[in-house]
Amino acid sequence: MDFKLLLVENEDLKQYKEDLQEAFQKGFEQRYGKTDETILPEKDIEESLHAEGAIAYKAVVGGKMVGGAVVSIDEGTQCNELELLFVKYGVQSKGIGKKIWFELERLYPKTKVWKTCTPYFEKRNIHFYVNVCGFQIVEFFHEKHPMPDLQDDFIGDGNEGMFAFEKKMQLE
């Protein structure tokens, strides 16, 4: 597979956002059925893209964008965050997500801890982060234990259930 992880260019952004939204939308709809609600609104994507230390990557195979990721890098603490990771709908289960993740690890070898989260219903994501990438579940957010700094509704009420993950890296 001719895989590359490249920085997202301005001319990529429209398609990048569309592919990202479609991936999240289809994941939600496979679990709950068709909805008119936008599961990952553009404002949430923009928030991730403009977070402090944010860097957006696109995964390219055979010259075509097939996924991507947004990371927030804190050079001071080296406690970094995987804001978003997606594989374009229709090309999942080909190892692309795994290649994206391990390339990010390679690009940021000084990282002490990686953090991310995913909704409780995304069993594929939970499997991916725990069994493929080596993260550990460290917290479960819900209505009685809400996520701190939750600014708006994410996937319905936002506190219906999100798993927080961490991966402590072995530094040489």
Describe the structure.
The protein has 172 residues and is of the alpha+beta class. 29% of the residues lie in helices and 30% in strands. The chain has four helices and seven strands, in the order βααβββαβαββ. Strands 1-2-3-4-5-7-6 form a seven-stranded mixed sheet, sandwiched between helices. β4, α3 and β5 form a beta-alpha-beta unit. About 5% of the residues have low confidence.
List keywords for this structure.
172 residues; alpha+beta; seven-stranded mixed beta sheet; 4 helices; 30% strand; globular
Q: Kindly state the mean pLDDT as a whole number?
A: 89
Find the structural class using helix and strand composition: alpha+beta
Spatial order of the strands forming the largest sheet = 1-2-3-4-5-7-6
Distance between the termini: 29 Å
- What's the Cα radius of gyration? 15 Å
Strand content: 25-35%
What share of the residues lie within helices? 25-40%
Contiguous runs where pLDDT drops below 50 for at least 5 residues: 151-158
Q: Helices and strands, in N-to-C order?
A: EHHEEEHEHEE
Morphology call? globular
How many helices? The count is 4
Biggest β-sheet: count, sense, barrel? 7 strands, mixed
Number of strands: 7
